[in-house]
Design a protein that fits this description.
This is Peptidase M15C domain-containing protein. The chain has 279 residues and is α+β, with helices and mostly antiparallel strands. The protein is 19% helix and 16% strand. A four-stranded antiparallel beta sheet has the order 1-2-3-4, covered by helices on one side. Strands 7-12-10 form a three-stranded antiparallel beta sheet, covered by helices on one side. The structure holds zinc ion. Zinc ion binds next to strand 7. Zinc ion (ZN) binds next to strand 7.
C-alpha cells in the first residue's frame, strides 16, 4: 500500500487540485511548443498556450481521493491545423483509489458479509479508465485489498497504454456476486468473498488479491469443464482481442507488480486469473 490514498474522504464536490493540473498542462504545452529539437510545431505557428489548454474541462469527473492522470505525448498532427479551436486531446489514463464508503458497503452486501476474511476497512475501491471492445474509453471499477490497490492501478495504466480491450470492469455486486453471471458477462472483477472455484476454502478473490480478466476470452479450464461456457471458443487460445497469452503485455504488466497468472498453472488452467499469491 502506498501513500495515504485510501484514507481521505471522497469529498464529492471538491475538484481535486485543479491548479496543479493546469500547471501540468501548461508545462506540457510549453514543452510541446518549445524550441526543442524534434518538435512538430512549425516556427511561428505556435498558438498561444491559452486556447490549447481546454483539457481541464474533461478532468476531475468522478475523481476520487487520489486521482492520477498522465498526459500522452503531444500529438504532432495537431500543430498542422491553424484552427483556433483546440484539438481534442486523446483520453488519458485516469484512476482513483478510495475507501469503502458506507454507500459502497451497502452496495457490496452481496460480495461481503461479516465473517469474510478481510474487513471492509482493508479493502479499497479502485476506478480505472480502460478501452472497451468497441474501442471506446470508459471507466470501470474494482474492489481489491488495500495492499495491492496502488500496484493494480499501475497494471491498468499499462493495459490502457497497450490498448488492451476489456469488455466490462464492474463490481461483482452488479451481478449479485454470482461469479458465473459475472464471468458470463465477460466482466473483469476482483474482490468477491467466495469459495475457491471447484473446492472449499476461501478463494484469493475473497482477500481482494485476485483479478479475473475478460473471463470469456480467458476461461477457466479443468478437464472438460470450461467456465464460463462461452469461453469454449477460446480454449485453443486464438489471437483475438482481449485474449491473454503467455509473455504478452498483459502478463508482463501484472508480473511487474507481483501478480502471477493462472495460465501458468498445469491444472486447472485459469487464463483469466491473476493473483499476488500465485494461488
Ligand atoms: Zn480468479
Amino acid at each position: 500500500m502506498g501513500g495515504d490514498g485510501g484514507t481521505h474522504g471522497v469529498g464529492a464536490t471538491a475538484r481535486p487540485v485543479p491548479r496543479a493540473r493546469v500547471w501540468r498542462l501548461l508545462l506540457v504545452t510549453t514543452l510541446a511548443l518549445g524550441p526543442a529539437a524534434g518538435c512538430a510545431v512549425p516556427p511561428g505557428d505556435a498558438a498561444p498556450p491559452g486556447p490549447t489548454t481546454g483539457a481541464p474541462a474533461t478532468a476531475g469527473r468522478g475523481a476520487g481521493p487520489t486521482t492520477t492522470r498522465t498526459h500522452p505525448p503531444p500529438v504532432p498532427t495537431a500543430a498542422s491545423s491553424p484552427s483556433p479551436s483546440p484539438s481534442p486531446e486523446p483520453p488519458a489514463f485516469e484512476a482513483s483509489v478510495g475507501p469503502i464508503t458506507p454507500e459502497l458497503a451497502a452496495r457490496m452486501h452481496a460480495s461481503w458479509r461479516p465473517g469474510c476474511p478481510v474487513p471492509l476497512e482493508d479493502l479499497r475501491h479502485v476506478t480505472v479508465r480502460h478501452h472497451d471492445m468497441a474501442g471506446a474509453v470508459v471507466t470501470g471499477e474494482l474492489v481489491v485489498h488495500a495492499d495491492v490497490a496502488d500496484g493494480l492501478v499501475e497494471v491498468f495504466r499499462t493495459l490502457f497504454d497497450a490498448r488492451l480491450p476489456l469488455t466490462s470492469v464492474r463490481l461483482v455486486d452488479d451481478f449479485g456476486a454470482d461469479d458465473d453471471a459475472s464471468m458470463a458477462a465477460d466482466n473483469t472483477s476482483a474482490f468477491n468473498c467466495r469459495a475457491v472455484t471447484g473446492g472449499s476454502g476461501w478463494s484469493e478473490h475473497a482477500y481482494g488479491r485476485a483479478v479475473d480478466v475478460n473471463p470469456v476470452e480467458n476461461p477457466y479450464v479443468r478437464g472438460g469443464t470450461v467456465l464460463p461456457p462461452a469461453g469454449a471458443a477460446f480454449v485453443d487460445r486464438p489471437d483475438a482481442p482481449g485474449v491473454v497469452h503467455d509473455g504478452d503485455a498483459v502478463v508482463r504488466a501484472f508480473a511487474e507488480h507481483g501478480w502471477a497468472w493462472g495460465g501458468h498453472w498445469s491444472s486447472p488452467k485459469d487464463y483469466q486469473h491473476f493473483s499476488t499469491t500465485g494461488r
